[in-house]
Amino acid sequence: MEEGSAQVEMIVTEEHLNAAQVCQGGVIFTLADLAFALASNSYGTLALAIKASITYIKPAKKGDLLIAKAEEFSRSKSLATYHITVFRGPTQEKIAFFEGMVYRFDKPVFPENS
Predict the structure, then answer these.
(1) Dist CA 9 CA 68 (whole Å)
(2) What does pTM read for this prediction?
(3) What NCBIfam families does its record include (predicted)?
(4) For 16-66, what is each residue's pLDDT tens digit?
(5) Per-residue pLDDT tens over the stretch 76-101
């Protein structure tokens, strides 16, 4: 993937289901958050979330392949915003929309050991 973007995926299993037998919202949030973290740190400089929100559109069920695709929406010296769409593969049916903002630090993600 290019700098400023990322894609991750998972398969919904029994352990991810809630009492309604659909994927628990926190699982979907975590998948989107992982794509957000990978995209925002893809430049090699540390970026930490200061805001994140999600809108659930449709439920995901056991056996579904969920794909979270993160794209950079805007970036300045200190702030960046990312849009993450979670969809059901291979149909591309939208499951959730996540928006996150990071504060960008002027230091590497993985500092060298001294």
Answers:
(1) 6
(2) 0.94
(3) unchar_dom_1
(4) 999 999 999 999 999 999 999 999 999 999 999 999 999 999 999 999 999
(5) 999 999 999 999 998 999 999 999 99
Distance CA 6, CA 70 (A): 5
Residue 114 has pLDDT above 50, yes or no: no
Q: Do the beta carbons of residue 6 and residue 42 sit within 8 Å? A: yes
Q: Coil, helix or strand for 93?
A: strand
DSSP 13: -
Nearest partner of 78 among 50, 47, 103, judged by Cα: 103
Q: What is the dihedral of CA 43, 106, 98, 36, to 10 degrees?
A: 40
Pick the closest to residue 31 from 4, 71, 5, 68 (CA basis).
Answer: 68
Which of the following CATH numbers is that of domain 5-106: 3.40.640.10, 3.40.50.720, 3.40.190.10, 3.10.129.10?
A: 3.10.129.10
* Domain range list for the chain: 5-106
Q: How far apart are CA 11 and CA 39, in angstroms?
A: 21
